Amino acid sequence: MSYQRPGLGVSPAALMFLALGAIWGTSFPAIEIGLHVVPALSFAAIRYSLAGLIILGYAAYATDRWRPRGTEEWLAVSVAGLLVIAVYHGLLYLGELRVSGAVAAIVVSLSPVLTAGLAAVLLDADVDLVEGLGLLAGFAGVVIVASPGGGGTDLLGVALVFGGAVAFALGAVLARPLSTDLPVETMEAWAMLLGSGVLWVGAGARGESLAGVEWTLPALASLAYLTLVAGCVGFLLYFELLDRIGATELHLVGYLEPVVAALMAWALLGQVVDSQALAGFAAIFLGFALLERDVIFEAVVTTADAVRSH
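Above: the chain sequence. Below: its structure as tokens.
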């Protein structure tokens, strides 16, 4: 791609950013709907088996390499497949058996904070006093959500989703030294296929079976949305935004997702996120704002400059 990398304030990138937040935010209540019918790990495995095949076909058509080569490329695929696809989604789906999609989205929004903390531990990244306070605020937010009387009163459910967020963040950190020339679409396709294989193994270990599943229209709609829209379209938007605005600003989408998830949970399921869960989300966002204060300031300045230029 030959275009320049404008900031988030440029209209096309801003629209794609909002679309991605809406798509991925809606995926949390969509998962909850499907889990009423389909066993958790089998549901995640079906989703990523189908999405992986579709994106692999796209990679074969649109890129110059449809499969990894060499140890380093397969290692990068394995890290993403095991941690970001299998462990993250497996724990997320199991967690959503016990907590609402909106609460799960709030806990998952801690991922950028966890990423910064794990990078400091594993990659010897410097963390100053303000960033340290950001880490504490983020963890405090999860404690607020999980406390008795909050939206995530099922402590095990919150713990499962939190474990998934840790796996997602760990995958992001471990992938940093594994920079390869493998097209990102190809890596994502193979990661999805590898991760879905691990999920199928987990489903078998849990004794899950699809034999008795009665595929209702809402369950089919949920699977179609998660596979085609959240999986394929969402990741293609992610790839485009990654190239346009970079990974750091793209982290901000994680704080649009819980807002969308809460609205869609109310519209589709009649669920209302209580004030304690909202307070937890506010603490998590404060933690991210402290950690990424320079990026947020730059994004605000870029957006203001774009508005003035029009």
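The chain has one domain: 11-207+218-309.
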